């Protein structure tokens, strides 16, 4: 974040806003929220299938707009908000209506202590005020529905995307002048107090920071500072005269994926990457000319931005500037026409797996990939997303099965083995105009200097492919971890095999939460043990120091998982003499827990 935004001037922005949702969109982006691509997870239709509004009970235009708006972050990521939506708007089940009127509830916090809604007498207005229930009855929360959703985003998103410093009640009670310094140094945002959980909170603005002053017994922390940067929080803390430690200052839980900083793509014959995943076999070649059948409607497609055909020339796909993707059979009959993107489509590809229908992949200028079988509805979520426009796409049927390559404008190419879903990131450089993958595993990279041919080494490219295929032979959905069906477990085991230490260690930590229990049998743990032991026996595994302890703690369970570990102990006993003290200690714990004789 290079631009400093002074939220002390937020009231001015609030006063001059013109469209209902423009400021909401700006605030969300400023704090790091990004459109995830795909379809909304929460919709009006999903909340009340088949519901048709009663004309005698009108719905305010602003509420309808919010539900359908592409900047409605609640619809796409509701877990950021700690609230439940209500559609259709209805009376409260727990709170009496105000005298001589009715409330139409539109949102409630998770515990339903507070509900927010508009007055039925104002439902005919395009953007009526929003009320909230308190101990004093229903009071005004926001001057309009659109202001309510803006305020809700300011209340919720900074806690996920920003740096956070909560100030305890003891600290504020011990130094009441903190509040006086807050009021003297910073201006309010221009929004009414936020009412929730027996507290009302005024928000103040600072450069790159928001300060929430919670009043009332429900305010667990009377002051909470959120900053777009760590420095912004520190500056506010110093201004308020606070005493704090690094442990008090919480880093963002949501960190956007980085954009690569790569030079222009450049290749030398015989060159390779640092892991020998590809080798340049030629440079300066003529760019391949894609063969796309001229089906009726393709050439005349308004706003056409990209087109491609499958390997047999039997299916044609095109994208346009509105985000729609169009699919035809070679005879000109239309197979599909879908609005899949909220940005112009920048690249498309199509392949036909063995014995199946056409599969389409499309990318847009927001960096979103959608992947779907043309004869079925697409998955609601995006296949992938990065913070750079998709520059090129290609797919092919290799000896190992279908493969997909996506290139983004920041110079990263991502290569999937679609059968196992193993994936590799290749930082090939910027300026890529086209990618073409051939059936013999050669990736042709076209830049302004010509086309280079890179021979891919599939074993080095997808080192966990075999592991993932074997994991895929188990019905993990029928097995249980500590938090329900074990769908997440096979992917985490594959991540344990990652050559990135942070990824491998994070996977082990997550597996602890899913597989370790001293009181309840965990069926997924027994199935996972052979794979975890296999990873432990690979000397280059980046998580060995914690992985062996995970295996030992699984053995402390009461079910089949204990027997699975005991069966594997003989293959692990040599680790008692490992050169790393942490592994020697974990091996000792394994022997102790399993009750294996040491002599």
UniProtKB/TrEMBL annotation:
Chain positions covered by the region annotation Disordered: 33-55, 249-268
Superkingdom, taxonomy of origin: Bacteria
Protein name: Uncharacterized protein
